[in-house]
């Protein structure tokens, strides 16, 4: 049994290697067909004015409402006008994600663009709009009931997240390896229906192999090649 498995590895290892190399090369090549995209992130702090348990819970509940209000067509129009961006509000909304983090009382604003500077401008302008809008609203409220809203840091750096050839090539190699294993298993399963060795004959037919009949193939009148014999099952007496 061990010899059969080692034989399978020797016979089909080239399939596995070819599948890994081919999938890696294709993934690496496809990466260069992708458009460059940059991502910028700004964090906005929404901390209660006083360390009160009730006010803290209210701030956490309000964070979801803040996120909802920031993801509207009207806000996108205002931010586009402020930043003087050349895009439609629906496109701005598609390229911007806003998510709350109640554990740190922060709201994360993430923007994506083909241009690094534009992505930074989108995220920072939306954060500034939110801070200005909340500051104006809470200026009319009692100071003890306010939620202090401010940008954690205005110094941001857009990072390229697409394309990533090396990561794609590694993912392609893993996928190629799995496909290669699947192809080898398929071939082995198909070949399992053929009786190729005396051991397989005895194991399948439960008969004892007494000998093998050689098959001859005449290549010329003066020379005869004898190929490997085909085992013939027989019942011993």
UniProtKB/TrEMBL annotation:
Key words of the record: Membrane, Transmembrane, Transmembrane helix
MF terms in GO: protein tyrosine kinase activity
Transmembrane annotation, as ranges: 12-33, 166-190
InterPro entries named in the record: Bact_polysacc_biosynth/exp
CC annotations in GO: plasma membrane
PANTHER family to which the protein is assigned, alphabetical: FERRIC ENTEROBACTIN TRANSPORT PROTEIN FEPE (PTHR32309:SF13), TYROSINE-PROTEIN KINASE (PTHR32309)
Name of the protein in question: Polysaccharide chain length determinant N-terminal domain-containing protein
Biological source species: Caldilineaceae bacterium SB0664_bin_27
């Amino acid at each position: 049994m061990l010899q059969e498995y080692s034989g399978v590895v020797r016979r089909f290892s080239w399939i596995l290697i070819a599948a890994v190399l081919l999938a890696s090369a294709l993934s690496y090549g496809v990466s260069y067909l992708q458009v460059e995209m940059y991502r910028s992130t700004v964090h906005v702090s929404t901390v209660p004015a006083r360390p009160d348990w009730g006010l803290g819970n209210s701030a956490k509940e309000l964070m979801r409402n803040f996120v909802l209000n920031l993801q509207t067509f009207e806000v996108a129009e205002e931010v586009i006008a402020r930043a003087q961006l050349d895009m439609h509000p629906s496109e701005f909304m598609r390229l911007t994600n806003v998510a709350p983090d109640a554990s740190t009382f922060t709201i994360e604003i993430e923007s994506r663009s083909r241009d690094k500077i534009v992505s930074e401008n989108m995220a920072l302008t939306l954060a500034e709009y939110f801070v200005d809008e909340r500051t104006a609203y809470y200026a009319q409220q009692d100071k003890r009931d306010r939620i202090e809203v401010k940008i954690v840091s205005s110094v941001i750096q857009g990072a390229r997240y697409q394309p990533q050839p090396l990561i794609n090539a590694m993912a392609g190699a893993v996928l190629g390896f799995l496909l290669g294993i699947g192809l080898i298993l398929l071939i082995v399963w198909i070949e399992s229906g053929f009786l190729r060795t005396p051991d397989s004959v005895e194991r399948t037919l439960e008969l004892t192999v007494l000998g093998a009949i050689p098959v001859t193939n005449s290549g010329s009148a003066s020379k005869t090649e004898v190929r490997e014999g085909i085992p013939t099952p027989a019942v011993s007496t």
